[in-house]
């Protein structure tokens, strides 16, 4: 069962955070490279009845979240940057956009799909190509 915590009671360094928040604002994503790998990061401000907090979105989660969305974080964590607390789903957490009834509509950790196969015909040869 999902038991939500309030943003107002969260502390920096706290893990296993389960919250339901509303996205109040979303900054422009920033791109950078680390260890030769391109990454994207975006800051948002989220709120609940107890207050508001900065939330960091990484890579594919950036495109799933919009201002006004209700977001459910399961097993997230709270860090601190420049003296302010920041919420994140992190590597082991789960971020979902939920509708008004609390039903998930988008998840940050989708199930892997099997590759699709297309048969490509060229003159006399037939080749299967995975993509």
Descriptors:
131 residues; mainly beta; OB fold (Dihydrolipoamide Acetyltransferase, E2P); five-stranded mixed barrel; two-stranded antiparallel ribbon
Description of the molecule:
By secondary structure, this protein is mostly beta strands. The chain has a single domain (7-110), classed as Nucleic acid-binding proteins (OB fold (Dihydrolipoamide Acetyltransferase, E2P), Beta Barrel). Helices cover 3% and strands 56% of the residues. The strands form two sheets. It has a five-stranded mixed beta barrel with strand order 1-3-4-6-5. Strands 9-10 form a two-stranded antiparallel sheet. The chain is globular, with a radius of gyration of 19 Å.
């Amino acid at each position: 069962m999902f038991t939500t915590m309030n943003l107002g009671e969260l502390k920096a360094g706290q893990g296993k955070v389960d919250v339901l928040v509303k996205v109040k604002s979303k900054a422009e994503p920033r791109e950078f490279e680390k260890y030769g790998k391109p990454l994207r990061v975006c800051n948002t401000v989220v709120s609940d009845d107890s207050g508001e907090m900065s939330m960091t979105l990484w890579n594919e989660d950036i495109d799933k979240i919009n201002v006004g969305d209700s977001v459910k974080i399961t097993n997230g964590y709270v860090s601190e940057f420049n003296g302010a607390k920041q919420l994140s789903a992190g590597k082991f957490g789960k971020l979902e956009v939920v509708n008004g009834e609390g039903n998930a509509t988008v998840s940050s950790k989708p199930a892997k799909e099997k590759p699709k196969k297309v048969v490509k015909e060229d003159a006399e040869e037939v080749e299967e190509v995975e993509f």
